[in-house]
Amino acid sequence: MEVKIDNSVISLVQGDITKEETEAIVNAANSGLRGGGGVDGAIHRAGGPSIMEECRAIGYCPAGQAVVTKGGNLKAGYVIHTVGPVYRGGNHGEANLLKSAYLESLKKVTQKGLASVAFPAISAGIYGYPLQEAARIALDTTINYLKDHKEIELVRFVLFSRDIYDVFSDELKKLV
Fold first, then answer.
1. SS3 assignment, position 84
2. What is the pLDDT of residues 17-59, one digit of tens each?
3. Which of 25, 34, 50, 66 is the most buried (most CB within 10 A)?
4. How many whole angstroms separate alpha carbon 117 and alpha carbon 109?
5. Which tens digits make up the pLDDT trace of 94-123?
6. Which residues contact residue 71 at a Cβ distance below 8 angstroms, ignoring those fewer than 6 apart?
7. How does residue 134 score in pLDDT terms, banded at 50, 70 and 90?
8. In whole numbers, what is the pLDDT of the chain averaged over residues?
9. Cβ atoms within 10 A of the Cβ of 104, count?
């Protein structure tokens, strides 16, 4: 599914983010930037050890923030590592932290002068964020950012399963 937001495109696909050819991909990282399971582990495995070397040099990234490394062996030239919140019932600032994770990642795209980026569903896996709310925050934040940042031509959400894709698709239809 694709929608235009001014001069930009938001694209939803089901697939493997490590195979994306966007200029950057976003990693749903942990705060210690140590690699891990899910998207994080897949990106580190596919990208090779140079990504971990850069992550070790950076050392730490708090929830809601983002840092950038080169893409190693990935087709994407950069990996933007962002830390989403662990969902603890929704009354601990999780929504603001998730919005911030997307916003700070998009700011890194702009700062690097890139035109394309691919996101996973941040915090919607092992961190337990309710998928429908996570999708709404991700898409609403992206749409609002693109309205003021026409330099970004493509934001692709690469969603691991059909279930996740369907929820993101439903939420995107509500927002545009």
1. coil
2. 999 999 999 999 999 999 888 899 999 999 999 999 999 999 9
3. 25
4. 7
5. 999 999 999 999 999 999 999 999 999 999
6. 24, 25, 47, 51, 77, 78, 79
7. very high
8. 97
9. 17
CA angle 85, 136, 55 (to 5 degrees): 35
- What does the alpha-carbon distance between residue 125 and residue 17 come to, in Å, rounded to a whole number? 15
Instruction: Report which of 132, 122, 145, 100 is spatially closest to residue 10, judged by C-alpha positions.
Output: 145
163 catalytic residue (yes or no)? no
Burial class (CB in 10 A: 0-12, 13-18, 19+), 150: exposed
Residue 95's identity, in one-letter code, is A
- Tokens in use for 84? 């989403």
Dihedral (CA of 70, 74, 77, 81) sign: negative
Tokens describing residue 9: 């495109």
| CA distances to 13, 70, 82, 134, 152 from 141, in Å | 18, 25, 15, 11, 14
Distance separating alpha carbons of residues 158 and 49, to the nearest angstrom: 23
Spot the catalytic one: 40, 140, 148, 170. 40
